[in-house]
Amino acid sequence: MVGSPEKTQVEPRTVVQVLPWVTTACRLGLAGVLIWAGAAKIGAPALSVQAVEAYELLPEKAAEIVGYVLPVSEIVLGVLLVVGLLTRITAVASGLLMALFVAGIASAWARGLNIDCGCFGGGGQLAPGESPEYLQEILRDLGYIALAAWIVWRAPGRLALDTVLGLAAKRDTGGEEDVNDDDEERH
Amino acid sequence: MGKSARDSARERVRAEREREEKRARRNRRIVVSSVVLAAVVLVGLFSLVQYNRNFSAKFTGTLAPITVQPDGTVVMAKPGVQKPVLDIYEDFQCPACKTLEDASGETVKELAAQGKVKVVYHPITIFQQDPLKSNSVRAASALRCVPGGTPWMNLHDRLFAEQPTEGKNGFELADLVAWGKEAGAAGADYESCVKNQTHAPAHIKFSEDTVAGSKIEGTPTVRLNGKELGNEAFVPGDLKETIMNAAK
C-alpha cells in the first residue's frame, strides 16, 4: 500500500530526461566490454585464431579470417558506441555478434567440447581437470544482448555524435517540441 | 486574403517543407553510408595488419646445428653462440604449442641460423590423461631416436603438423616410423628404436624432472634468458625484436 501511489505520480518529464542517460550508460557499458574483449585478443593474432579454431565450427581458412577480423571489429564497434555514432546500427551489430557468441558457446557445450570461450583472450582447450563455464558465459552474453536491445530501442541517448550530426530521428532526442511538431503536421 | 490564396500559400509552405525534409534525408543517408564504409575499411585494414603480424616466411636456409643432449633437451645454435638463450618447453599433443610453432617456429630457426640466439627445446609430456599422455610419449620418444640435425627438425615439425585431435588416438608407431624416414632418419636403428619405444622411460623421467625443476605452469612456456615471454612469443615480429634486443 505504501509507496505505490507515489510511483504512479512520477513526472513524465523526469522520465523523459533520465531515459536518454540510461541509453548512454548502456552504450558505455557495452562499449567497455567490446573494447576490453577486443584488446585482450588483438595482441597475438595466432592465439585469437586458435581460440576460434577450438570451437571446431569453421573450416581452417574461415577460422583464421575470423581470428583476425573479430578483435578489430569488437574495438571498432566499441568506439562507435562510445561516441554514439550510428548508434542504432552499431547496437544491432553488437547484439547480433553477442548472439553468435551465445550460439557458438551453446554448440560447444552441446558437443561436449572442453574449451574456454576465449571471449577475453586465452581460449582453446582447457587443461585436464579444468571445467568449462558455458552457462556463466552464455548468461553474461545474454546480459550484453539486453544492453544492446535497450540501445536499439532508445538510441542514441545523450552525448551522441548522432545528435550532433543530425542522424538521430527527431523523436529519439526526447524533446517536447518534436511531439508538437508531429501534431502540427497531422492536424 | 481569400480562402484559395490562403490555401495555396499553405501548399507552398508544405511543398517547401517536404523538399527540405527530402534533402535532410538524403544528407543523412550520405553521412550514414560514409561512416559505415569508413568503419568497414578500418576493420579491413587492421585485419590485414593482424594477418601480417601473424605471417612469417618459411625458413629455407641451412639450420644451425641441432644436437640432442644427454639430459633430453635439444640445442639448436651456431658454434660458440651462448646467449641469449631461448628455452622452449613444448608438448607435441598441445594445441597451443602447435600454434606457437606455426606462428614463430620459422623465426626461431632463422635467428638461430644467424647466430643471434641459442635455442633449447624441451620436448616434454605435460598431459597426465590418456590418450593425450600416451600420444605425447610415443611422439617424443620417437623423436629422441633422431640424434639431431635437419632430420630432427623435420620430424619435430611433422609431429606438430600431424597433431592428433585432442582426445583421439594418434602418433601410431607405424606412422612415426614412416614420418621419421621421410624426415631423413636412418634405417633399421631408427625403426627398432621407435617400435621398442626405447627412450620412453627416459622421456617420462625427463618430463617429470623438467616440470618440477623448471617450474613449468603449462605448455608452451617460452623463456628468454630465464624470463618468461607472454604474447610476444606468438607474434613472429615481436619475438624477433625481443630476441634481437637481448642479443645486443
How far apart, in Å, are the first and last alpha carbons of chain B? 93 Å
Please report the two chains with the greatest interface, counting residues with C-beta closer than 8 angstroms to the partner's C-beta: A-B, 30 and 34 residues
Listing every helix as H and every strand as E from the N terminus to the C terminus, the arrangement of chain A reads HHHHHEEHHH
Order of helices and strands of chain B: HEEEHEHHHHHEEH
Number of strands of chain A: 2
State the secondary-structure class of chain B.
Answer: alpha+beta
Counted up, domains of chain B total 2
Strand content of chain A: under 5%
Largest sheet composition of chain B: 6 strands, mixed
State the helical fraction of chain B.
55-70%
The first-to-last residue Cα distance of chain A is 42 Å
Report the average pLDDT across residues of chain A: 85
Structural shape of chain A: elongated
Question: Per DSSP, what share of the residues of chain B sits in E-state strands of 2 or more residues?
Answer: 5-15%
CATH fold call of the largest domain in chain B: Glutaredoxin
Question: Gist?
Answer:
The complex is a heterodimer of chains A (187) and B (248). Chain A is mainly alpha-helical and 187 residues long.
Question: What would you say this structure looks like, in words?
Answer:
The complex is a heterodimer of chains A (187) and B (248). Chain A is mainly alpha-helical and 187 residues long. Chain A is built from eight helices and two strands, in the order H-H-H-H-H-E-E-H-H-H. Chain A has a two-stranded antiparallel ribbon. In chain A, strand 1 (115-116) and strand 2 (124-125) form a beta hairpin. Residues 1-5 and 172-187 of chain A have low confidence and may be disordered. Chain B folds into two domains: 1-54; 66-247, Glutaredoxin (3-Layer(aba) Sandwich). A six-stranded mixed beta sheet of chain B has the order 1-2-4-3-5-6, covered by helices on one side. The radius of gyration of chain B is 30 Å and the shape is elongated. The N and C termini of chain B lie far apart (93 Å).
